[in-house]
Amino acid sequence: MSYISPDAGTDRVFDNADSFAMVFDRTWQRLRGEATESPSEAEFLEQVLAEMTDHPFLISSPEMARQVAAFRIRLLDLS
Length: 79
Hints:
Blueprint: H1 17-34, H2 41-51, H3 56-60, H4 62-75
């Protein structure tokens, strides 16, 4: 089941990197909080992206979405 919630005030998402980044950050944090084990960063990234499979940007630009995800991980020191 996918989880898309860009913010508490709306359920709208857009086919762009900004919308993807907002949802990615929230999904990463939510799954980190629910994790009972510590998978590798690559494994965890795959889990997060699997939760976001219906995000328009991930659908239309999967390679760019992965680049944005990698950037967010580095930028916010999410690893």
